Amino acid sequence: MSGGLSTRMLTDADAVRTERSRILAELLTIVDELADRAVAVMRAEIPAYADRTDDFLTDVREQVGRHYRTKLAVLLEERTVTFEDVAFSRRASMRRVQAGFTLADYINAFRVGQQVFWEAVVAHAGRTFAGQEAALTLAAPLMRYCDLASTHAANAYMEYQRYAAAESAQASRDLVELLLDGEAPTRGPQLATAHAHGLNPESRTPLVVVAAVLVGGEADARHAACAAIARTGVGRHRTLAVVRQSEIVAVPALGPGGDPGELCDRLQAVQRDLLDEDVVLAMGISTVVEGTANIPRAFQEARAVLEFLPEDGGVAALPRISPFEYMALRADDTARHLVDPRVLDLLEEDRMRGGVLTATIRAFAAADLNLRAAAERLQIHHNTAQYRLRRIQERTGRNLRHFTDLVDLLVAIALQDVLPPATNPGRKRLVPATNEEGGTADVPSAHESR
């Protein structure tokens, strides 16, 4: 009785071993077909693989096929997989980094490859007891192979990514220094970096320069702020941004049809988001210039405009400031002392009462001295607008229909926006922004805007 049981068990083990060899041999004959199937699933399930070139997909197919053949060889030899078996995947990992793949997508592709292979094992096992048992004996070694291969690939990916990041950072720093010196890259990594960021030295690419300094937060926050600025841009190119001593310098390329206002919005959003992380940044944005040859001048503009900001940071964007507003920002206390005291008194009183007269002056100027159009802009009755103009003239002696009188009032308003009034010497300096009447209004400081 016991002898018959042992004989049957031996027979069953032999049958499982035979089935195992059969399954592996059959899979070995269809490796190319399985690799094609795996690539098709990758393209269907992983968006990063969907629209790649034929050359890239051929590379993926070859890698999958090589893994399948290596896996089958290890299983047929009934040995444990080693790092030497999967060493070939190191160069593939490098190519995935260069192609811009995330590590998650790359490892996800390993999962897909393993899934396709296991489904093939199950399909070829058939419905017999020996075939299904043979498939089960392959599960553990297949898991060990996938674990070792994916770990090796991930480590190689991270290693090369760190290397590439260091090389890229150095090339970016070298490029920024070259551009700030008024020179243009002609070859090598600097030229490649310039093209990658949309800065073609041979064309008159529209661009701005951003200068930013940290006014609150840990010193390491500079790098986080630099990375956030680098993610801004209004075209298909990433913004060139580096940490340079104690400041951040960025050169966003606007490209054809790029909107500087949209870029300013994005940089303003970056400043606000960083503020939520207790990173306080002061950011100056230059005027739009054409071509890399004008970067040194734009850099000086961006640096100079930082002085318009309060001590608690913010964004001073020259593309949003008119020449008139800029002259007011550059004015000193002497300019304010030249303003008629009657005008100053009216503006101070009007500020405390909501600024309706100041808004009327701005709207009247924006409407080209057309009172009816100004009233429509302010959404008030024509007679109300007429009454306000008469009141302004009575208080200041200025007739808004006379060009020189109107300019006097507009200058006084601009100076009030940017210079501390005599009654409040502690008021901080603010950057003007366009309000709904077309004039200027205070931009709150970083902390006030929260």
What does this structure look like?
It comes from Actinomadura algeriensis. Pfam families: GGDEF_2, HTH_30, RsbRD_N. Residues about 420-450 have low confidence and may be disordered. The protein has about 450 residues and is an alpha+beta fold. Helix content is about 60%, strand content about 10%. A 5-stranded mixed sheet has the order 3-4-2-5-7. A two-stranded antiparallel sheet has the order 1-6. It has 3 domains: about 1-165, Orthogonal Bundle (Globin-like); about 205-320, Alpha-Beta Plaits (2-Layer Sandwich), CATH 3.30.70; about 330-440, Arc Repressor Mutant, subunit A (Orthogonal Bundle), CATH 1.10.10.2840. Helix 1 runs parallel beside helix 7.
N/C terminus separation: 86 Å
Principal-axes geometry comes out as: elongated
- The low-confidence runs, each spanning 5 or more residues with pLDDT under 50, are 420-450
Q: What number of domains?
A: 3
Helix/strand/pairing class, anyone?
A: alpha+beta
Q: And the CATH topology of the largest domain?
A: Globin-like
Radius of gyration: 35 Å
CATH superfamily of the largest domain: Globins
Strand residue percentage: 5-15%
How many DSSP E strands?
A: 9
Question: Topology as H/E string?
Answer: HHHHHHHHEEHEEHEEHEHHHHHHHEE
CATH class call of the largest domain: Mainly Alpha
The main β sheet shows up as: 5 strands, mixed
CATH architecture term of the largest domain:
Orthogonal Bundle
Strand order of the largest sheet: 3-4-2-5-7
